[in-house]
Write a structure and sequence with these properties.
This protein is mainly β. It has one helix and 28 strands. It has one helix at residues 272-275, and strands spanning 3-6, 10-11, 18-30, 37-39, 50-62, 66-68, 73-85, 90-92, 96-97, 100-101, 103-115, 121-124, 129-134, 139-142, 145-148, 164-170, 174-177, 179-181, 191-197, 200-203, 207-211, 216-219, 225-227, 233-235, 264-265, 281-282, 284-285, 291-293. The strands form six sheets. Strands 1, 3, 5, 7, 11, 13, 14, 16, 17, 19, 20, 22 and 23 form a 13-stranded parallel beta sheet that branches. It has a seven-stranded parallel beta sheet with strand order 2-4-6-8-12-15-18, with no helix packed on it. The radius of gyration is 18 Å and the shape is globular.
């Protein structure tokens, strides 16, 4: 396969622009000292930028921040291959600009996604609306931490400009990390949800606070596994049954056409108190570029 070296990777960089990157082999490497890699919206005026990275084979090697949903809408869908991130954050839904929230999705169906960067980790929803879904044979290895719901230190942000993050750990998927937490250190009000649907959460060290601080951790009927991996850990996070069992199905009456990548799906409720919150979904497209299911 071919090899590409870049100083920075932008997909769907500008406002009202759609960008797609499909990788089935070879390698993409960002050079040391390069800029952030951003999928979906770069600058404050680029809130309508949309980008998608579809990795089915080969490798991505990055040593700086990878933003999935920079200031617009971004998705990283991995069905194979390997990602090696050795520096910076992997931030899903990075910014909010003038009330316009970024949207980000990291969906790991197969392959391996490694984050070995020092004090950083994977952050699901720093200021926007972010979803991490790991299932199938996908493996996410995080040397340091998984943060679900965060907030940037920008003092100009209002309290509601905080991240809303959801992790779905489904059948066959594995997340291995040092610890799982929520970031409310910057005077914001982030919200973090972790859903177990038969996947495995594994520790890579002995730690007193392996899993704590999230607003909700739900164990659905499929169950889930927390693997101590031979280490000693303490779990302070309440693990609850869900109040409801989520959205059962979403029928597709018109699958549309011309999709180069699965579209982002957002579920909203007219009355959150009566109908619940936090449901997430992903779209499935076929080779004819039509949505066949959600």
């Amino acid at each position: 396969g071919g090899n590409v070296a870049v100083n920075a990777l932008f997909i769907g960089k500008n406002d009202n622009v759609n960008g797609y990157l499909f990788q089935s082999g070879g390698s993409i490497v960002d050079r040391s000292g390069g800029n952030d890699n951003r999928i979906g919206g770069n600058d404050p005026e680029d809130v309508n930028g949309t980008g998608a990275y579809i990795l089915s084979g080969g490798s991505l090697e990055t040593n700086t921040n990878l933003m999935i949903g920079g200031r617009g809408t971004g998705s990283f869908i991995q069905t194979g291959g390997t990602v090696n991130s050795t520096g910076g954050w992997t931030a899903i839904a990075r910014y909010t600009e003038d009330g316009s929230r970024s949207t980000g999705l990291l969906e790991l169906r197969a392959g391996t996604h490694n984050h070995s960067g020092g004090g950083q980790g994977v952050l699901v929803a720093e200021e926007g609306d972010g979803v991490l879904e790991v299932r199938g044979t996908g493996v996410l290895n995080i040397a340091n931490r998984l943060v679900v719901g965060g907030r940037d230190s920008n003092g100009e942000l209002a309290p509601n400009q905080s991240g809303y993050g959801v992790v779905n750990l489904a059948t066959g998927g594995t997340i291995a990390t040092g610890f799982v937490a929520q970031d409310s250190s910057n005077n914001g009000v982030p919200y973090g949800v972790f859903n177990f649907r038969r996947g495995t959460l594994k520790t890579n060290r002995s730690v007193n606070d392996f899993f704590q601080g999230l607003d909700e951790a739900r164990i659905y009927s499929q169950g889930g596994t927390i693997d101590t991996n031979g280490f000693n850990i303490r779990i302070a996070q309440p693990l609850d049954n869900p109040s409801f069992d989520g959205v059962a199905s979403i029928p597709v009456t018109n699958g549309g056409s011309g999709y180069l990548a699965p579209p982002i799906v957002k579920i909203s409720s007219a009355n959150s108190f009566d109908q619940g919150t936090g449901a997430t979904a992903v779209a499935v497209i076929n080779e004819a570029s039509t949505v066949t299911g959600i």
